[in-house]
């Protein structure tokens, strides 16, 4: 199966080279989507073994992932993996996340930081933000997964056909989860390790996700 | 009564300003008409504020007519802000689509 890894990047020139070199051992193609970076990203990617797409202006992670996924589909991808450019994910986990699709056990796979015991998540995030997000997922969207905001995921052929998302910013995580459930796809979760360099999504970010989902609901 | 005269004086000032802006080509005719209509309606409401007062009492509210107008104005403002947010959101999605199609048309590849 042809595996594409889509890496959205916004001002991550300092980590991009290592991430791409690590990931290249575990997939057939890498698609870097530069989301309007103002750093050295364009120079860095020149020497990397990857397809390179550049947004003229910053449109958000969800938008960049969609651009990369669309590109991968056009190039005949069977599996598309979404991976972060900040070096917080481990490239070795890529094998774990595509395995259920290759073995016909699932059509979409989400990486879970909560199934892994080695991830050292900031306490406030672990004990307050994530349980709150899980509560919203469970009682508003009827989704019962251990990681409510997983950005490390693999989409198999059927998921690539069925799932589309419109959220440009961080709300795409929830939108993809909801779409996967509504499409009736077989979903699997695998443990992944996340190395936190920074806190990541804060309370304000969580509220923005809810606002984006609400506005999108009204616009449809 | 004095309050009503002051409010009407303000409205006349804004109407005069609108006329001046139209004369100086600073606003379009449609903008002029829209704002003139707006201030005209506000003027009518002020002139008939006592009638609105008794209407408010008939509706069973304990507050005065002017307070009811404020409540309605706040509700309308919230609604307009929401409409504006939805329009901005729609435009933002269109910008993303445009950015995406341009990016995909100009893609580069270092793959062999």
- Taking the alpha carbons of the first and last residues of chain A, their distance comes to 36 Å
Q: For the residues shown, what is the average pLDDT of chain B?
A: 89
Using the alpha-carbon principal axes, give the shape of chain A.
Answer: globular
Low-confidence stretches of chain A: none
Q: Which strand-content bin applies to the residues of chain A? A: 15-25%
What report would you give on this structure?
The complex is a heterodimer of chains A (220) and B (112). With 220 residues, chain A is an alpha/beta fold. In chain A, 41% of the residues lie in helices and 16% in strands. Chain A contains 8 helices and 7 strands. In chain A, strands 3-2-1-4-6-5-7 form a 7-stranded mixed sheet, with helices on both faces. Chain A starts with a strand and ends with a helix. The model of chain A has no long low-confidence stretch (mean pLDDT 89). Chain B has 112 residues and is mostly helical. Chain B folds into 2 domains: 1-47; 65-104. Chain B is 83% helix and 2% strand. Chain B has helices at 2-23, 29-47, 49-59, 65-105, and one strand at 108-109. Chain B is elongated. Chain B starts with a helix and ends with a strand. The A-B interface holds A 29, 33, 45-57, 59-60, 63, 66-67, 70-71, 74, 166, 168, 215-216, 218-219 and B 82, 85-86, 89-90, 92-93, 95-96, 99-100, 102-104, 106-111. Strand 3 (51-55) of chain A pairs antiparallel with strand 1 of chain B, so a sheet runs across the interface.
């Amino acid at each position: 199966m042809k595996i594409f890894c889509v890496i959205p990047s916004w001002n991550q020139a300092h980590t991009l080279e290592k991430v791409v070199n690590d990931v290249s051992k575990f997939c057939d193609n890498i698609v870097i989507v530069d989301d309007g970076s103002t750093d050295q990203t364009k120079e860095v990617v020149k020497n990397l073994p990857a397809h390179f797409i550049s947004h003229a202006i910053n449109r958000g992670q969800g938008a960049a992932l969609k651009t990369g996924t669309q590109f991968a589909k056009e190039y005949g991808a069977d599996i598309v993996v979404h991976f972060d450019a900040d070096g917080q994910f481990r490239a070795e986990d890529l094998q774990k996340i595509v395995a259920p699709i290759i073995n016909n056990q699932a059509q979409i796979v989400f990486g879970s930081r909560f199934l892994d015991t080695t991830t050292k998540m900031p306490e406030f995030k672990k004990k307050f933000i994530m349980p709150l997000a899980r509560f919203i997922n469970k009682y508003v969207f009827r989704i019962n997964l251990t990681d409510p905001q997983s950005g490390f995921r693999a989409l198999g052929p059927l998921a690539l056909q069925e799932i589309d998302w419109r959220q440009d910013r961080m709300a795409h995580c929830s939108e993809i989860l909801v779409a996967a459930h509504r499409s009736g796809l077989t979903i699997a979760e695998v443990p992944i390790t996340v190395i936190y360099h920074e806190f990541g999504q804060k309370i304000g970010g969580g509220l923005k996700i809810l606002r984006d989902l609400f506005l999108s609901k009204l616009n449809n | 009564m004095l309050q009503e005269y002051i409010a009407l004086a303000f409205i006349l000032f804004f109407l005069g300003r609108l006329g001046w802006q139209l004369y100086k080509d600073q606003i379009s005719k449609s903008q002029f008409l829209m704002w003139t209509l707006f201030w005209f309606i506000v003027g009518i409401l002020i002139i008939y504020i006592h009638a609105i007062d008794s209407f408010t009492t008939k509706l069973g509210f304990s507050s005065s007519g002017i307070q009811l107008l404020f409540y309605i104005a706040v509700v309308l403002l919230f609604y307009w802000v929401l409409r504006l947010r939805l329009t901005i959101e729609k435009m933002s999605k269109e910008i993303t689509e445009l950015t995406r199609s341009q990016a995909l048309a100009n893609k580069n590849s270092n793959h062999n």
